[in-house]
Structures are given as structure tokens and as C-alpha cells.
């Protein structure tokens, strides 16, 4: 829970009188001291391509802002983390550190772009990538930004051939596996999700007259209440509560109505209670959310928004 401990609610906003470039370097110092346990002038010099005097000034500024976080060790010629270290920036949270490790392991970011220096061996599940055509994505973004319609050739799994659609896109969504474009389908007269990888061609058209505010499923937020499976032992339920940071055995997860199907699918909560050891979690407010789920499924029918389509 240390990442939630306030130090003026973390200094994620730029401290008064600091230029953005120095504020980023201070975040770098905070990150390296926390997760590497040490930092020196050369680290700043090489990463940011700044002069040694500027690196000295940055370290002095950080020491001024967080005097208990590090101390200079003459033998190693570096600043070392003290036992009293408290993160100064949210950028140094464990969530951010692990996110960078994951991005590095997946090859999403290059080594020179991350604050991580040394890293432990990391194993991840293989990611089966969905190919997204860059030109099509570019046109979708253009249509969203300029609020225009877009003519697409779309291949769903229910139809033997691709069909022509006129869409008014307004957002992107990721279901944990694939990218979708959220759009008003002019042929079906409703808002749906379209898997971007299934768009074979796209041409930006005229200005759209569809109001984004009319997409109620997109703008409505729901709260899922998740708890340990009641069939598990008390020790197992307690372990899950700790693992997920539950409060009184309940984890509250907020999501858009339009994303409800995907969230339940990813968490294995689409259906009623299964084998306790396999399912582990249950949806505590299923009765409350069921009408929203049924609305999605009935409205889409054999729609593009269902994951296997």
C-alpha cells in the first residue's frame, strides 16, 4: 500500500518553478533511486544527454525536495537509497515499474526509452497479435478527429463475404485481446464495436451528423462488485482478497456499459458459479448487471461486438 501513501498526494503535477524537462529528470531520479537503489551524475548525463553540471543541479534539486530519500556514498561515487525512502512521484509506483517491465518483455518499448536500467528475468504469456493496417487506423483516427463518416469493407465471421458499411466512428476500445472502433453503423442504425483488424478497406467520407452523446452504452458507467468464490476455503478467500486489494471481501471495478461483455469474459464471469478452484472470483451484483448485459447481447444479436464474431 506504500504507493498510495501521500507525499502531498505525490508530486505528479509539476512542482512550482520547475521546467518540464527538469521535472522529467526528477522523476527519473526518483524512479532509479527507488528501483535501482542508486543513481549518479553519469546516469542523468547519458539518459538525457545533459551536461555534468546540469546533472549535479538536478540531483541537488531532488535532494532538496526529498532530503530523506538518498545519501551520497563516496566510495561508490553515487547516491544510494536510504531506509527512509518515500516515492516523490507517482511515476515511481510499483504499477508503473511492472508496466515498464511488461512493455520491455513484450518488445513494445525499446531499452533507451524506459527508466528501467537493470531488470530481472521476466516471463510472460505469448501475445497473439492482431494485425492492424496502419493506413486503415490512420483513416479511422482522421474520421474520429474530424467527426466524419467512413466507408468500410468489413468482414464478420458470420458472413461469407465482406460487406460495405458506412460508419460514424467516435472512439477506440480494447477488449484485452483486440482493438475495436466504436461507431454508429448507418445500416443497422445503432452504435456497435467493429474489430479494426477485420476492416479490409476504409475511405473517409462526408461530415457525420451523429451525436456522440447518443451512444448511451459508451457514456454509461457501471460498477462490478467482485468477490472470492463462496465455495473456496476461508484461507483461499482471504488470499484472493489480499491479492486483489478487496475491501471487506469486495473489489469494485468500474467500466463502460459498452465494455461490460468484454470485462466479464476476461474475468471468467459471464456465467453463473463454476468450479471454485478454477473460477476463483464471482460477480456479486450479477442480478443488478444482468439487464445491461442482456441489452448488449439482444441489441447486437449476431453482432460484430461479440468476441468470436
Descriptive notes:
With 309 residues, this protein is of the alpha+beta class. The chain is built from ten helices and eleven strands. The protein folds into three domains: 2-113, Arc Repressor Mutant, subunit A; 134-208, Roll (SH3 type barrels); 220-300, no CATH class. The chain has helices at 20-36, 41-48, 52-65, 94-106, 134-146, 216-219, 234-243, 260-267, 276-279, 286-300; strands spanning 38-39, 70-73, 78-81, 148-154, 163-174, 179-185, 190-195, 199-207, 221-228, 251-256, 281-283. It is globular. Residues 4-17 and 302-309 have low confidence and may be disordered.
Write the layout of secondary structure elements.
Layout lengths: L19 H17 L1 E2 L1 H8 L3 H14 L4 E4 L4 E4 L12 H13 L27 H13 L1 E7 L8 E12 L4 E7 L4 E6 L3 E9 L8 H4 L1 E8 L5 H10 L7 E6 L3 H8 L8 H4 L1 E3 L2 H15 L9
Q: Summarize the amount of helix as a percent range.
A: 25-40%
The helix/strand series, from N terminus to C terminus, equals HEHHEEHHEEEEEHEHEHHEH
Q: Characterize the largest beta sheet: strand count, sense, and whether it forms a barrel.
A: 5 strands, antiparallel
Number of helical stretches of at least 4 residues: 10
Structural class: alpha+beta
Which spans of ≥5 residues are poorly predicted at pLDDT below 50? 4-17, 302-309
Q: How much of the sequence is in beta strands? A: 15-25%
- Architecture of the largest domain, CATH level 2? Orthogonal Bundle
What is the CATH class designation of the largest domain? Mainly Alpha
* CATH topology-level name of the largest domain: Arc Repressor Mutant, subunit A
What is the distance, rounded to the nearest whole angstrom, between the alpha carbons of the first and last residues? Answer: 41 Å
Strand count? 11
Strand line-up in the sheet with most strands: 7-6-5-4-8
Q: Rg from C-alpha positions?
A: 25 Å
Shape, per Cα inertia axes: globular
Question: What is the overall pLDDT average?
Answer: 88
